[in-house]
Model the fold of this input.
Amino acid sequence: MTEEAFLEAYDPAAFARPALTVDLVLMGLREGRPAVLLIERKEHPHAGRWALPGSFVGLDETLDGAAGRVLREKAGFSPVEAARTRLEQLYTFGAVDRDPRMRIVTVAYLALMPEAAFMKALESDARLSAAILVVPWDGTTGGIVEAFSLGDRDRATPLSFAFDHAEILAVAILRLRGKLDYSDVAFALLPEVFTLRQLQDVHQAILGTSLNKPAFRRRMLDRGWLAPTGSREGGTSFRPAELYRFQEMP
Done:
């Protein structure tokens, strides 16, 4: 039998097929902690719980294409903003019981956003809300992340997540922690020019712990990643700090 004949006779319904979705972790920093954009589910299952922006993948769509569509349709990004957003595949989640409707496998994507871009996205689409992530300070997450609404100073009631989205967020934090020391991941959360204090704030937010200021600054400067701009920050009541920008190593 030729391959053409085999394919012509093949029955696509011979095996049960799971549905496929994408979910987006759109992360920035607020109040010195990681923050994420969420949507409150209005329909069952898990109506009233909080979910990452996501969608089913069409039969004629690539995974990256579906993720870009979610940026535009559910996160309010313009086509230009969506095209410029750096999306990285985070992990594939396929637990049999992760969705009560049917067998659904999701591919999670991670996008890191400077604070200004994060707040612009939040303010541009009324469906989006922001949550501050509270992660353990022992260097792990244990698969659990607590989240509280932005502005909830009392931190009284953690948000309830739909599906396995708390686990997805935990994996995202662990991924960032694992890449922090050898990649440029921290700079994606910063504006184009920044101070060493802002860079340390990003590291501390991701790691969930405080860092020794002199040792951190010496380590960052020794890596050759920082290019002085010759300028200093403005609008401060204290001695203005020097501004840097990220430079790729040759």
